[in-house]
């Protein structure tokens, strides 16, 4: 996978969150002119994830998520004398050494070498009980699933190879798997492994029992300050972890966030993420409402783009809409470049919340509030719980 993190094909369309239809924010793409066509083509429209009705007669009854955690890995059969049909021994997650999705030795869709195949048994679809569909989109579907031996509950994402090839996103898939599978943080959705057959690639993901954060935001219209501070603190900690590993997410927004069993926030989509040890990047990517000024202007960017997105997200949590929303994307660009922040009369928010947003949404990336200081900000410290602050 030496080439997975290379910059050469970064402009390809990302995988994105699976969606039942190509959703978009209101009026996001309704205006503009031909001069904006190239820029618009590189941007990622908002993907509002839509659940599939649970009473589908085409699938079996859902398995109960009573046991949560990662499915144990496959290991080698005990000896050559063992029956070829025997199932390999399963080990505890903390003893994990190698999985079929070991990205340092294999690529999506590639065949394992004979020596690798002899040492480990691949996951296959028959290893899982498949439950209700959780969502679907242009690349495939996500299902609730349970590993039969260990009873671990997971989310199984099935992606069709023909669709991946049609939209030329194989490179994005490899990079997304490479990055997400190596991240270990309570506020980042785990990618446990992957396997494939002739037609599909399957990703074994952590199951986020409480679903999509965006759906909760729609239901509540906006979040109270305490809840917003809790989410922002959790995200700041997760992004600090990513940046320490030279990973820039580049597409933080409500659609890419899920909620775990206890309501904890989890970053779920790394389709635009990049491993950038050299820090500076040039690709215009992400979602229109969350673009920072440096991307709009076509300048180099670094991890500070995630800090800007955190400010946009904080505003959207508190008011129910992004801060620079306008009738067309050209007007949105102008408002972003001016950092044209406006405060609606309702709901009323505290001066502390406004202060944090002001310090995150700064035109100069070098002047944005560092993530460590976000966690120390009085408004965050006064509202977020000890779990979110890492205390």
TrEMBL record:
<feature type="region of interest" description="Disordered">
    <location>
        <begin position="1"/>
        <end position="120"/>
    </location>
</feature>
<dbReference type="Pfam" id="PF00069">
    <property type="entry name" value="Pkinase"/>
</dbReference>
<feature type="compositionally biased region" description="Basic and acidic residues">
    <location>
        <begin position="1"/>
        <end position="11"/>
    </location>
</feature>
<dbReference type="InterPro" id="IPR008271">
    <property type="entry name" value="Ser/Thr_kinase_AS"/>
</dbReference>
<keyword id="KW-0418">Kinase</keyword>
<dbReference type="InterPro" id="IPR017441">
    <property type="entry name" value="Protein_kinase_ATP_BS"/>
</dbReference>
<dbReference type="InterPro" id="IPR011009">
    <property type="entry name" value="Kinase-like_dom_sf"/>
</dbReference>
<dbReference type="InterPro" id="IPR000719">
    <property type="entry name" value="Prot_kinase_dom"/>
</dbReference>
<keyword id="KW-0808">Transferase</keyword>
<feature type="compositionally biased region" description="Basic and acidic residues">
    <location>
        <begin position="25"/>
        <end position="39"/>
    </location>
</feature>
<keyword id="KW-0547">Nucleotide-binding</keyword>
<dbReference type="InterPro" id="IPR030616">
    <property type="entry name" value="Aur-like"/>
</dbReference>
<feature type="compositionally biased region" description="Polar residues">
    <location>
        <begin position="47"/>
        <end position="64"/>
    </location>
</feature>
<keyword id="KW-0723">Serine/threonine-protein kinase</keyword>
<feature type="binding site">
    <location>
        <position position="157"/>
    </location>
    <ligand>
        <name>ATP</name>
    </ligand>
</feature>
<keyword id="KW-0067">ATP-binding</keyword>
<feature type="compositionally biased region" description="Low complexity">
    <location>
        <begin position="76"/>
        <end position="88"/>
    </location>
</feature>
<protein>
    <recommendedName>
        <fullName>Aurora kinase</fullName>
        <ecNumber>2.7.11.1</ecNumber>
    </recommendedName>
</protein>
<comment type="similarity">
    <text>Belongs to the protein kinase superfamily. Ser/Thr protein kinase family. Aurora subfamily.</text>
</comment>
<feature type="domain" description="Protein kinase">
    <location>
        <begin position="128"/>
        <end position="380"/>
    </location>
</feature>
